[in-house]
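Quick one, T. Sequence first:
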Amino acid sequence: MPPAFSAAEKARITRLLLDNGLRLFTTQGLRKTSLEDLVAGTGIAKSTFYVFFDSKEALYLELMLGQMAEVKSRVVDGALRKEPDTRAGLRAFLHATLAELDGNPLYGRLMTHPEEMGAVVRKLDPERVTSAPDNPVTALAAYLTEHGDDLADDDPEVIVGVLQAVLMMPLHRDRLARPDLYPQILDRLIDIVATGLTRPER
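Structure tokens:
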């Protein structure tokens, strides 16, 4: 029978598990992180981990959901929706999202290792991610629907795919003929994409 924990103990151990998970998932990934790694320093046995989370994927998802509101606040509310027009909004969104991927270890990991998100979704209910009120992807889709009159006549999924392609640029910066020009190349690419995805300014 698993041990009983007071509310304070449960909160403390949950916080330690989340801290361990964030450190381990972002440095060595979901697959290479063991339950033994996750419970290290928490004072609980591996079997007791399941009192707190159903699986290591559930812990990973909890970390993602915990950061979702902050990410949305920065890339959607503070960038995309802050600009007065759609073209400037898309530019700001791409710059803010690239900064987020560079400075946020967990979301940066998800971009460079999408199979980890796939593993989480396969094991858990994907609805928990898609229906989360602060999901940046859902918020982006809503914005594109609202601003459809300002956008080129592309399928919205094509537009999202183009934006995703720009967000993959950091993975390939070393393949450029002139990696030292990466910041200027990225700025120009974002300009071209934002212009190409929107109708001419009226």
